[in-house]
Task: structure prediction
Amino acid sequence: MIQQSEQQQHDQAQQRVIITVVGTDRVGIIAGVATALSQQNVNILDISQTILRDFFTMIMIVDIAASQVSLQELQDILKKRGEEIGVQINAQHEDIFKYMHRI
Result:
């Protein structure tokens, strides 16, 4: 029997979600999104953000394994937070994101 590596076991224990944020740049976007995630016990694994002219764009990979809310509930929470801070926030399970963006 082949034993899984610790990294493979760790990856399987995670429930990764891809979050995208787009909108007009303003103060507090990252803080607003990170706070909403923290309140739901969602761990940020990786984050990249940039400003293109006056447009803010961010992509995050997060782990929802420890969260007490479903992905659908998290999507609703993030949509509401996006409306509050003036950006559009989308969240998709990593597997769906991968299949949608396959070549």
